[in-house]
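Subject: Polysaccharide deacetylase family protein

B.,
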Amino acid sequence: MSIVKLSAGLCIGGSILLSSYIQAEQFHLPILQYHHVGEETPFSTSVTPAQFREHLEFLENDGYQVIDLSSGIKKLRNGEGLPDKAVAITFDDAYKNIYEKGFPILKEKSFPFTVFINTDPVLHKNRNFLTWDEMREMQQYGAVMANHTMSHPYMMRHNEEESFSAWFARIKQEVLEVESLLVETLGSSPKMLAYPYGESNELIRSFLEELDIVGFGQQSGVVSSDSDFSNLPRFPASGAYAKLSTLKTKLSSVPMPLTKVDTGGDFAGEEPVSMTLSFKEGQYRTKEFTCYVSGQGKADINWLTEQKVSITAKKAFSYGRGRINCTMPVKKSTNYHWFSNVWVKPRAEEGYVVEKSEKY
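Prediction pasted inline below.
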């Protein structure tokens, strides 16, 4: 078991500073995703202040180590271990209530966190969004501001009459402008981006990789050194997913031990989606491997070999985003391996870029 040194510069108080050296026992990272902290904000993207406090007190009392997301990701990419029970906290969008309702609790607990900011409402001084001064204050207590694009667009969609090259130039500008603002206004960029609505395609992900920017989607799962760092998973912790009972299961989950994932692409069509997962060599509880399709129940599962499985939805997705979540109990444990994938079924009028060409 490896030993790592944690410096005070990486941690803003909390139990991981009890010793200069701790044993690194975890090589994966669950990441919690929030949006609003409020009682009158949209249910699907909100936790109440009481729920948020309940989540953080559980983390504190159950021995979880809340770590800085950027530092944790860098360690995993380098094959280094994290503190046992490490977890990271993130927010999407630069909502004012993060500062007003969430930040006081985070500061009380000395928990670091990341806010993915879309900068247009900040620059226009929208009263429902954070100000630069509020962000600077939060930075002093462990907050990191990261990229969520300028205008929060559907990145995979072109505008009316927009060519392929014009669409891609606009998307690149959405990313690059925020990177510049983070450095110029807040002092630095962690080079992390959360895709608005969790949507990205191969071209966008390749662009981020060229810039050495880590990308985050909205599919659920646990990050490890084997993950695709252009499209990392997070666990939603708001709305219907805010119940502490279900959150506990996700927090204790570990990555699905995979060597290859074939999803058939980013888009769903008129046929049921299907994906194939290839497992690392090992003994697993494959008889208890289960997958659920959003809005459909259990998926059809076909083991092609002892290490390869095909998962197929029972029927085609409706328009919009659909997902398949797969779990499998960890051998000799009550925890679960977890993997999820999201597809988009586009309407023609929505203008999704479905091919790498000037034609749509």
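The first helix runs from residue 49 to 61.

T.
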